[in-house]
């Protein structure tokens, strides 16, 4: 495994690999790797010849007061995990390598960032697109792998690729969970024991909502009204609040537009998405549902 820190070193290795006709896969991460990241790496290994994992805590996607300065960076452990998984190249640039210039150009996102994390973290997805776009230009992979846990990120990146005719395939890897349902996240290591015991409630709410909505459809209806959705959401809101959790959002959105829906219709795809502060840690999760 090669560990490179500069764009020019990385490009040299990738260029040689492409000359040999190898298929290149990119797994962008911010490090503190867990089994969720490893699932992305394994998916990449299964269909690519050369797997590049980037580890970069991208400052431009953090807002003021967020955890940029405390974000975990266990690079030695990350490198060992990557080596074990058979990763070919780890690219872990310093911020100056990625951003030598004060940037003046941004990709503007319309409706897709209006809700969910886009609403509670203004500018976050501009930062994500900035760094992902740079990584795409630097690595020029055939396929890039993203996790369902950050579904809004996946939908926005897929849309960027489509709208800008970027010749990269985007693969979605399903969310990897702890045995109690908690979605794996680098931020889970911030949780105190008490917070860790409350954290699986996010997934429980998603499952409860899915069951509630499915039960309506089992009664032979073809749609669920806005009122029924609102009632189901407010039940879960109350259940979580009673446990002392602070809900940032809990929404059912259309899979394509990421906008809240006014009714659920059979045969269409939706996302039930949640973000909650567990102690000081903001956790997110979602499930994709189709009735
Ligand atoms: P991050 O390091 O948090 O920026 O995540 C890097 C990539 O790993 C993103 O595409 C995430 O969606 C994905 N990822 C993070 N957690 C999980 C998980 N529990 N299951 C699957 N993919 C994940």
* Spans of at least 5 consecutive residues with low confidence: none
Helix amount, in percent? 25-40%
Shape: globular
Distance between the termini: 45 Å
In short:
With 291 residues, the protein is an alpha/beta fold. The protein is 40% helix and 21% strand. It contains ten helices and eleven strands.
Tell me what you see in this structure.
By secondary structure, the protein is α/β, with parallel strands linked by helices. It is 40% helix and 21% strand. It is built from ten helices and eleven strands. It has a six-stranded parallel sheet with strand order 1-4-3-2-5-6, sandwiched between helices. A three-stranded antiparallel sheet has the order 8-10-11. A two-stranded antiparallel ribbon has the order 7-9. α6 crosses α7 and α9 runs antiparallel to α10 (226-242). The longest helix is centred in the C-terminal third of the chain and has 18 residues, at 201-218. The radius of gyration is 20 Å and the shape is globular. The mean pLDDT is 96. It binds adenosine monophosphate. Adenosine monophosphate (AMP) binds next to α2 and β5.
Summary tags:
291 residues, binds adenosine monophosphate, alpha/beta, 6-stranded parallel beta sheet
Topology:
Elements: E1 2-4, H1 7-19, E2 24-29, H2 35-47, E3 50-55, H3 75-85, E4 89-91, H4 95-98, H5 117-120, H6 124-139, E5 143-147, H7 151-163, E6 169-173, H8 193-198, H9 201-218, E7 223-224, H10 226-242, E8 246-254, E9 264-265, E10 269-278, E11 281-290
Helix pairs in contact: 6-7, 9-10
The structure holds adenosine monophosphate (AMP).
The site of adenosine monophosphate (AMP) has 17 residues, from helix 2 and strand 5.
């Amino acid at each position: 495994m090669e560990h490179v820190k500069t764009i020019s070193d990385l490009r040299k290795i990738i260029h040689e690999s492409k000359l040999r006709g190898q298929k290149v896969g990119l797994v962008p991460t911010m490090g503190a790797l867990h089994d969720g990241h490893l699932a992305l790496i394994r998916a990449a290994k299964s269909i690519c010849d050369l797997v590049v994992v980037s580890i970069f805590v991208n400052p431009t996607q953090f807002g003021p007061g967020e955890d940029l300065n405390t974000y975990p960076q266990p690079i030695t452990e990350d490198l060992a995990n990557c080596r074990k998984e058979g990763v070919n190249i780890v690219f872990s640039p310093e911020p100056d390598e990625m951003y030598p210039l004060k940037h003046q150009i941004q990709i503007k996102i319309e409706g897709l960032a209006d809700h969910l994390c886009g609403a509670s973290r203004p500018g976050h997805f501009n930062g994500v697109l900035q760094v992902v776009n740079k990584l795409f230009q630097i690595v020029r992979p055939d396929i890039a792998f993203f996790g369902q846990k950050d579904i809004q990120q996946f939908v926005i990146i897929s849309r960027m690729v489509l709208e800008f005719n970027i010749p990269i395939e985007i693969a979605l890897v399903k969310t990897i969970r702890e045995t109690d349902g908690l979605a794996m996240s680098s931020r889970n290591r911030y949780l105190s024991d008490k917070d860790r015991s409350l954290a699986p409630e996010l997934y429980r709410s998603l499952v409860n909502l899915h069951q509630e909505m499915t039960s309506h459809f089992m009664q032979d209806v073809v749609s669920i009204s806005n009122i029924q959705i609102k009632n189901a959401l407010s039940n879960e809101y109350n259940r979580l609040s009673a446990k002392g959790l602070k809900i940032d959002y809990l929404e059912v959105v259309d899979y394509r537009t990421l906008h809240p829906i006014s009714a659920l219709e059979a045969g269409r795809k939706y996302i039930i998405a949640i973000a909650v502060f567990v102690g000081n840690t903001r956790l997110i999760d979602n499930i994709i549902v189709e009735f």
